[in-house]
């Protein structure tokens, strides 16, 4: 007599937030996952480049992001939608759901809200890159953009690093002003991207831009840039000067040369994957001007999803 497979649990945003790992644990686990990914077959990570379904009628996209981590014993798929122009302010531009499976038999164990996972893991990976690549004694942080990723990056960066000054710019200044009022700690709202970038040691671009908003001539020599937006082959946040005159690090070479307009359209040469830096097989050239082009990888969802589910299981 066959036994019924138990239905998957559903973890809404509140449960995901409740069981989300602390920043230090998340960063440690993600650094290991990045190293495993860049180790090839021996790292035990199976992760194809994301499949993207364009919804041209509504200027939207559906991304499908599966990954398996043998060392974490975790199998997930993230479904994420991205719409360029959302008319209803109550509807976020990015929405995500993560499915967690039992690797040994394929049973679906959990369906969980993926928006918090996406926001926090992206910021954590940027923090890993920054730890290795930012100039020694960095004092000034610049954020371009004031959406969800700006908040998640600010949260983890102010927890992990000690910046003396934080500057922000957004195309709609009111959103930047709201950001400055909402977060803990002083934030200077700038009237232009150039004003925000000038003198910054670490720059984070988290915008909806499709054309460059960061120009290399503004960037302080030796600064580090986390380029997080512009996830399509024809979109850009950084101009040719910024891309070509920096040492370029990426999360995935394969993804960057297929998906990143900043990389493809500038013709910039990729120096290393971030995982190679974590492994120690490629150097962290923090004395140079550096760019970390973050596209986001499925394994970066797998790791926190497994940690969240394990925490929930332990408490249920």
From TrEMBL:
Keywords: Cytoplasm, NAD, NADP, Oxidoreductase. It catalyses: L-pipecolate + NADP(+) = Delta(1)-piperideine-2-carboxylate + NADPH + H(+); (S)-cystathionine ketimine + NADPH + 2 H(+) = (3R,5S)-2,3,5,6,7-pentahydro-1,4-thiazepine-3,5-dicarboxylate + NADP(+); L-pipecolate + NAD(+) = Delta(1)-piperideine-2-carboxylate + NADH + H(+); Delta(2)-thiazoline-2-carboxylate + NADPH + 2 H(+) = L-thiazolidine-2-carboxylate + NADP(+). Its EC number is 1.5.1.1, 1.5.1.25. SUPFAM superfamilies: NAD(P)-binding Rossmann-fold domains. It comes from the Eukaryota. One of its GO terms (biological process) is thyroid hormone metabolic process. One of its GO terms (molecular function) is protein homodimerization activity. It is found in: Cytoplasm. It holds the Pfam family OCD_Mu_crystall. InterPro entries: NAD(P)-bd_dom_sf, ODC_Mu_crystall, ODC_N. Its main location: cytoplasm. Gene3D superfamilies: NAD(P)-binding Rossmann-like Domain, ornithine cyclodeaminase, domain 1. Homodimer. Binds the thyroid hormone triiodothyronine (T3); T3 binding inhibits enzymatic activity. Belongs to the ornithine cyclodeaminase/mu-crystallin family. This is Ketimine reductase mu-crystallin. The lineage of its organism: Eukaryota, Metazoa, Chordata, Craniata, Vertebrata. The gene is CRYM.
């Amino acid at each position: 007599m066959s036994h019924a497979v138990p239905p998957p649990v559903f973890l809404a945003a509140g449960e995901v937030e409740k069981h989300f790992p602390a920043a230090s644990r998340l960063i440690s686990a993600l650094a290991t996952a990045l190293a495993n990914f860049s180790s090839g077959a021996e790292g035990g990570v199976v992760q194809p480049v994301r499949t993207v379904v364009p919804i041209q009628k509504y200027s939207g996209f559906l991304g499908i992001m599966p990954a398996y981590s043998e060392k974490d014993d975790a199998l997930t798929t993230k479904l994420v939608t991205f719409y360029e122009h959302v008319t209803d302010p109550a509807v976020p531009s990015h929405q995500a759901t993560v499915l967690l499976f039992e690797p040994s038999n394929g049973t679906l164990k959990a369906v969980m809200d993926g928006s918090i996972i996406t926001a926090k893991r992206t910021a954590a990976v940027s923090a890993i890159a920054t730890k290795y690549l930012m100039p020694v004694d960095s004092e000034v942080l610049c954020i371009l953009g004031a959406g969800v990723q700006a908040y998640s990056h600010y949260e983890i960066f102010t927890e992990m690093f000690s910046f003396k000054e934080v500057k922000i710019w957004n195309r709609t200044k009111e959103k930047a002003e709201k950001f400055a009022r909402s977060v803990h700690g002083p934030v200077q709202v700038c009237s232009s991207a150039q004003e925000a970038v000038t003198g910054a040691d670490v720059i984070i671009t988290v915008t909806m831009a499709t054309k460059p908003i960061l120009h290399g001539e503004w960037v302080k020599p030796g600064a580090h840039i986390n380029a997080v937006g512009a996830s399509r082959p024809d979109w850009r946040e950084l101009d040719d000067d910024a891309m070509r005159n920096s040492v370029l690090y990426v999360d995935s070479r394969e993804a960057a040369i297929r998906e990143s307009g900043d990389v493809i359209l500038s013709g910039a040469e990729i120096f290393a994957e971030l995982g190679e830096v974590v492994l120690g097989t490629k150097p962290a050239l923090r004395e140079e001007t550096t760019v970390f082009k973050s596209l986001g990888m499925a394994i970066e969802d797998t790791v926190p999803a497994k940690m969240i589910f394990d925490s929930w299981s332990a408490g249920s």
